[in-house]
Design goal:
Length: 312
């Protein structure tokens, strides 16, 4: 299986400097990485990053973002230095999340909870946590939240549990296996479960072919089309595509959220395709949502958004 996805981080890529400045107002003000990286400090925190750092033609220290091992080392260094993570490892075939974008989501979730005056012990449901278990790690590190994290991939949960155990987070993060990939909440939630909010980074593609096409477009935009496709952030089929694509996944998410509206105060999800938002609003209103928000996010040249809704 070949799953090729490239995410370029703008903060230390001089080619994307203009876009980074243009969209800097969309980066959450509490994001530690909004001003860039100090690679010297990161290498000190995680020496395994050092071999991947070099001086480019702009006389700037950087890494090769087409090298998946370099990208993984960078993100590991960020976790080690800034989030008190002592262990973070999983197969190279699994999705390696870019930390600045993921922690941005966490900060925006905090804002939603704060605006709704939801305080006390925050319980978060992470849908599709993946082998990296990234949202529970960041949510606990930054805001001391507790998590229930689900996934349809048993092997991903195995690696996530190893990360949880080695960081001594067993009391803060609990994992659950979703045996039916056609469902989101059904089959994993108990009647007694109560959550402050749910978070989700859904599969964005309909198939492996669509994921490959998206990767080819990114390579072309970076003028790297002559190179062979590389698995920069990698990703298994469960992480990258879903039958019917992002639209189908979100439709299921919205519908099932209405079935569990009394067990979760707020529901949120990342939405890659802007043109899906209008339909989501229409569906949510029909389902009885009382409040719907769209939060725009910007990470350099990458624009995304969070849609949040509640029935209460």
């Amino acid at each position: 299986m070949h799953n090729f996805v490239i995410h370029i981080n703008p903060f230390i890529n001089p080619h994307l400097k203009t876009k980074a400045i243009k969209n800097s107002d969309k980066i959450h003000p509490n994001n530690k990485h909004k001003s860039g990286y100090n690679l010297d400090v990161l290498c000190e925190a995680f020496p395994e990053l050092t071999p991947f750092v070099f001086i480019n033609k702009y006389d700037t220290k950087t890494i090769d973002f087409a090298n998946p091992k370099a990208v993984k080392a960078l993100n590991t260094a960020l976790l080690f230095k800034h989030y008190n993570i002592a262990f973070w490892d999983f197969p190279d075939t699994n999705l390696c999340p870019p930390i600045p974008g993921r922690v941005d989501y966490v900060h925006h979730v905090f804002d939603v909870l704060k605006a709704s005056k939801i305080k006390g012990d925050i319980q978060v449901l992470d849908i599709g946590t993946g082998a990296s278990c990234i949202y529970p790690l960041l949510g606990y590190a930054v805001y001391n939240w507790s998590f229930v994290a689900t996934d349809v991939d048993k092997m991903a949960l195995k690696y996530a549990q190893n990360i949880i155990a080695k960081n001594k987070l067993d009391n803060a993060v609990k994992l659950r296996y979703q045996s039916d990939a056609s469902h989101i909440f059904q089959g994993v939630l108990n009647d007694s479960d109560r959550f402050s909010i749910s978070i989700c980074n859904p599969p964005f593609y309909k198939s492996e072919a669509e994921a490959l096409e998206a990767n080819a477009r990114k390579l072309k935009g970076l003028k790297m089309e002559a190179l062979k496709p590389v698995r920069n952030f990698a990703g298994t089929h469960n992480e990258l595509w879903y039958k019917g694509g992002e639209k189908a996944f979100l439709h299921t998410y919205l519908y099932e959220s209405s079935l569990f509206k009394d067990q979760c105060e707020w529901f949120t999800t990342l939405v890659s395709k802007k043109d899906l938002v209008k339909g989501m609003y229409a569906s949510l209103k029909k389902l009885g949502a009382t409040n719907i928000k769209t939060i725009n996010m910007g990470q350099g040249n990458k624009i995304s958004r969070i849609v949040a809704w509640t029935f209460n």
